[in-house]
Amino acid sequence: MAQIVRLTTRQQRSGQEEAAQAAEQLSLLSEELLKHLPGEARIAISRATHALQKAARPDTTEGLWPGGFTMLSRMQTAAIWDAIRALPSDDRPHQVRHAFDLVLLNLRQDTGEVLLTRDQLAEEIGCAPKHVSTIMGTLEKMGVIRRERRKIEGMQGRGVAVYFINPHVAWNGSLDVRKAQAAETRSPMQLELLQGGAS
To answer: Which residues form the HTH crp-type domain (predicted)?
Structure first.
């Protein structure tokens, strides 16, 4: 029986190679340099790197893994699901679970950064943007994610909230980078909330 093969043109291959090279160049930027850039520039670099990585490995050439994949710790994920179910109704457990699922589906490769803005999370979850901080704060207290503030030039206040997944829970990208990140991050299983319900 004949097998159908998806053909890739020379132009498509060339574009994918160029995207891969550009993504590699951006990944060479040191954390020290990035620290001194305005927050807006760091976010733009992060999103550009992710877009280039996607262009270098488009869904049509990923075979059994269309859209890529995220590695999960089964034990940690099950513990998080149980902890979310144990939340009181005032803590919006259904929306917290939806947020957790969205986090897993939108991770930047090799940093674990969540690539959705507050407004995008609110739209996907179906809640007001003001509630996203509370929902994500619940995941942060559980140790599932951590939050950073990035200053944006011309913007007052503490800066934009940027979220990262705990590498003990899930990861998208190099296992070597994941191991290095995990060595510096506390496992959420050590938190009381995940060991015995609400604290």
So the answer is: 104-152
Q: Is the CB of residue 84 less than 8 Å from the CB of residue 100?
A: yes
Question: If we measure between CA atoms, which residue out of 142, 137, 98 comes closest to residue 121?
Answer: 98
What pTM did the predictor assign? 0.64
Compute the distance between CA of residue 149 and CA of residue 39 in angstroms, rounded to an integer.
8
Provide the 3-class DSSP secondary structure of residue 150.
strand
In order along the chain (199 residues), what is the average pLDDT of each group of 10 residues?
A: 55 76 80 79 77 68 58 90 94 96 88 89 94 94 90 76 91 79 78 42
List CB contacts of 185: < 8 A, sequence separation 6 or more: 146, 166, 167, 168
Q: Is the dihedral of CA 77, 83, 86, 87 positive or negative?
A: negative
Q: Report the distance separating Cα 180 and Cα 190, nearest Å.
A: 19
What's the token pair of residue 117?
Answer: 């803005």
* Cβ atoms of residues 160 and 43 within 8 Å: yes
Pairing, β 145-150 against β 170-171: unpaired
DSSP string, 82-133: HHHHTS-GGG-HHHHHHHHHHHHHSB-TTT-BB---HHHHHHHHTS-HHHHH
Helix (H/G/I), strand (E/B), else coil: 149? strand
d(CA 178, CA 147): 18
